[in-house]
Amino acid sequence: MAQLKITWVKSTIGHPKDQIATIESLGLKRLNDSVIQEDSPALRGMIIKVRHLVKVEEAA
User: Fold this and answer.
1) Exposed / middle / buried, residue 33 (Cβ in 10 Å: 0-12, 13-18, 19+)
2) What tens digit of pLDDT does each residue of 3-57 get?
3) Residue 6, beta-bridge partner list
4) Does position 60 have pLDDT exceeding 90, yes or no?
C-alpha cells in the first residue's frame, strides 16, 4: 500500500474541537510537524476533514 506524508501547516487556533482532535489523531504534535502514514479510507477521511490545515504528499 502507498504511504502518505502529512505535514501540519496551519494553526488550529479558533477551529472546532473535532478538527483539533483529528490533527492529534493523525499523530501530529506541533505546527510544521510531519508524519508518514499508510494510506487507507479512514486516513483519507481524516485528511479531508482537516485539508485546510495540512499538506499531503506521497512518501517515497
Assistant:
1) middle
2) 999 999 999 999 999 999 999 999 999 999 999 999 999 999 999 999 999 999 9
3) 35, 56
4) no
Name the nearest CA neighbour of 47 among 31, 60, 37. 37
CA distance 43 to 5: 11
| SS3 at position 12 | coil
- Does an H or E element contain 20, and which? helix 17-25
CATH number of 3-58: 3.30.1390.20
Alpha-carbon dihedral sign for residues 19, 40, 6, 58: negative
Q: Where are the domains of the chain?
A: 3-58
Q: pTM for the complete prediction?
A: 0.92
